[in-house]
Amino acid sequence: MSFSHRHLLGLENLSRDELTFLLDTAASFKEISERDIKKVPTLRGKTVVSLFYEASTRTRTSFEIAAKRMSADFISLSSSTSSATKGETLLDTARNLAAMRPDAIILRHSASGAPHFLAARIDCPIVNAGDGSHEHPTQALLDLLTIRERKGRLEGLTVAIVGDILHSRVARSNIFALRTLGATVRLIGPPTLLPPELKAWGETTSDLHEGVRDADVIMMLRLQLERQGKNFFPTVDEYSRYFCLTQRAVAGASPEVIILHPGPMNRGVEIASDVADGPDSVIMGQVTNGIAVRMAVLFLLVNRAKVHSSSEAEAPVAETRPPAARLRRRAG
Ligand code: CP
User: pTM of this prediction?
Assistant: First the structure.
């Protein structure tokens, strides 16, 4: 198995083997973050640039931590502090950054397709960190890794995805990958956020209790109010009355259900606090897994020419232990 793509723009067109390889590579990176000294030389001498045109806490920070844990130099730009404020276009900004010869550019943008637009025009690997309502591939990969860890598999699981399906890039990336990996997807939300064409992707319902019944996994979504050009429901209060995940709704799911939310959470709107912080929640585990997933993605894209098999992909992790750890292992 291998991952030979130059960019990571989405999960829609990735095969089962490619998704599994990405998850396996991420799993192999996890132990680095458990070490006392969380740094390996895997990407020493490489430069990663992040370019965020939308706000972010988790994605931007975890890409930075991931790059730095592999010893890459990490340069972070946001649209509010870049020359975008002076009218520079996305393409001109990216061309100028590419002229400085980074080894990867991470892009978050409100326009669906923005990373694909750049990937076709600049000579540098592009990682999609969320494009409009289109895809958020690293979020879905960390979701999949979290589910696989807790459930031991993805195939055969029933995953209920609840909320603003229409505008959610997290939902889209997860739907594509979950279906490829053999899970059954149920989509739950108000009819206005659940257009009929989504039936092609999974069962749909506007009844939260029916939708989560016997589900193995419940994935809550944030209301994407910033992407909703018109009123899709009367009030946020009304939305929460029907679609906020409460303990009562969770009681109808599988007894071993796990609950995910990509963050940021609107407590009391999408998810009740006692559910978000309760024993079935794996939300903080998702955040932890975000580091390993982003390490894997950067590693595979930046080292693309060197990585052609899973055995070679495992080697850099093992080889890049800090010298003291290597010596201790040899001595042991
Ligand atoms: N899940 C997610 O993308 O969070 P941020 O917007 O904080 O990056």
Answer: 0.91
